[in-house]
Amino acid sequence: MSQKTVRLTMAQAVARFMTAQMTVIDGETLPIFGGVWAIFGHGNVAGIGEALYAVKDQLPTYRGQNEQSMAHAAIAYGKASFRRRFMAATTSIGPGALNMVTAAGLAYVNRIPVLLLPGDVFANRLPDPVLQQGENFGDGTVSVNDCFRPVSRYFDRITRPEQIIPALRRAMQVLTDPAECGPVTLSLCQDVQAEAYDYPESFFAEKVWVPRRIMPDADEFAMAAAALKLAKKPVIIAGGGVLYSEASESLAAFAEEHGIPVMETQAGKSALPHVHELNMGSVGVTGTSASNTLAEEADVVLAVGSRLQDFTTGSWALFKNENLKLIGLNVQPFDAHKHNALPLVADARVGLEALDAALMGWQVDSAWTQKALKLKEDWLADADAARAASNVELPSDAQVIGAVQRGRTKATLVCASGGLPGELHKLWRADGPGSYHLDYGFSTMGYEIAGGLGVALARPEDDVVVMVGDGSYLMMNSEIVSAVMMGLKLTVVVLDNSGFGCINRLQMATGGANFNNLFRDTFHVEMPNVDFAAHAASMGAKAKKLASVAELETALAESEGAGGVHVFVIDTDPLVTTEAGGHWWDVAVPEVSERPSVNAAREAYVKALRAQRAG
């Protein structure tokens, strides 16, 4: 019997296939693609553009203002959905495509699903070189889209219409796999988008994708459980994998049953509510004094769903116990084996629940738990002091954070890059899974507002608040227009310290001169004086410049129930940061310099290096 087919262009096949992919969340079957972000140009307008128009009632298409920022919005949607749903983004060839590479890097580093569909050159090569084509003198198969290869979990170039069948199937496997998850790039040659093929109807049959929950290996599990039973001072590091596995309740139950303190990475923050007594808060370079004191003494660290990046481990100088054992509970073996850990390759929820059962009746010495509770109490006093309102002319980031939290008590916070994430990691008090949303894996300036847009689409009932510095705002702000166009509720708080304050502080800490970071230290004929409120208002936002943290708190409270996009601007001090908590971070200082301050910083740096663990 011959196979039933339907004649479609390759681009039409892509669009129809996407509409047929489903998932199940809380018993409800939903489209797994939340939509497609598109900026059309030559290379995608006639092919994928026409195809998306045909399915616009089933698969919404959103127009971004910049290819990078629209892809950021798509990525934020996937992260806010705990990787259960995701989006796609399509661009023209050339600069339109390459604008997405930074976003691909963000998704790649943070293990977030997004389908990238950049247009590419002609497969038949007859018009070469087409407008915006980059020609490689030594390789005729290369286009600028090859730049996506190192930042894609799966990359394919579609040069024949039938190739899209295995490519899309492989794409879905990667996008939904908890271990492989990350960006997929299908580079669509523009002539092939328009070519027709007789596709099997079965290719477009509805398919439901649910998360794979990997069970632990018996031997790995036995070794991990035995190590925990012998622990005198165990701690848990909760990473983003706890949230993606929807394991928050299991983590809480495990910690409570066995009396083990929990500390959170940037990606894992909100895995436990701030008020949970065993939540010690952030860990590492931007960690609380409670977490870091416990981590220094810990004899067993159970790292759950964490990449264990240098900010988490204090550049691997945080853990001081010579007898430390590290257990890597992770779906990805690459992460589970890091730093000679005892690997426990498994889903976070499955692994925690299995360990809980295996350790039934075992509890750590109560003195360790009580010490943790006292350390948290001390930290909260320090944090309250840092966050308290002040009448100073230029408030600190911490004081603005306090005002935002008091003004919006149930906010879902979005941020990325710079000094704010460090202060937020320490000081923001998250009350539910996913209510703290940061990119600090790739630390991408410009993610913030676009990320807030994606979170608002994924979690329309949340009160989404973006905090962004003036430097990031100037890099990428145009998705304010998109949020206004789409009628979304979004609040943006702009902290203006007149430059790149975070990097200026790092420059000073490593002995450098104040140079090229704050506006006052740059080459300039005239100092910039940007009216951020007027700028945001020109894009349709309801914007105000506020003179104090008290005014900011009031404005936030008064606008809480209002719809639309609100932008609040406040001047801040570029030099003040929260001294409490924190840990050394390995930033290489020049070995030779004519400047005494650099030589002094180098001496301190060499001394600090001695604390690093080699394995």
TrEMBL record:
Sequence ranges assigned to domain Thiamine pyrophosphate enzyme central in this UniProt record: 224-355
SUPFAM superfamilies to which the protein is assigned, alphabetical: DHS-like NAD/FAD-binding domain (SSF52467), Thiamin diphosphate-binding fold (THDP-binding) (SSF52518)
InterPro entries linked: DHS-like_NAD/FAD-binding_dom, Myo_inos_IolD, THDP-binding, Thiamin_PyroP_enz_cen_dom, Thiamin_PyroP_enz_TPP-bd_dom, TPP-bd_CS, TPP_enz, TPP_enzyme_TPP-bd
Domain Thiamine pyrophosphate enzyme N-terminal TPP-binding as annotated: residue spans: 50-127
UniProt xrefs under Pfam families: TPP_enzyme_C, TPP_enzyme_M, TPP_enzyme_N
GO molecular function: acetolactate synthase activity; flavin adenine dinucleotide binding; hydrolase activity, acting on acid carbon-carbon bonds, in ketonic substances; magnesium ion binding; thiamine pyrophosphate binding
One GO BP: isoleucine biosynthetic process
Enzyme Commission code(s) on record: 3.7.1.-
Keywords attached to this entry: Hydrolase, Thiamine pyrophosphate
Entry GO CC: acetolactate synthase complex
Similarity section: Belongs to the TPP enzyme family.
PANTHER family (UniProt xref): 3D-(3,5_4)-TRIHYDROXYCYCLOHEXANE-1,2-DIONE HYDROLASE, THIAMINE PYROPHOSPHATE ENZYMES
Protein name according to UniProt: 3D-(3,5/4)-trihydroxycyclohexane-1,2-dione hydrolase
Gene: iolD
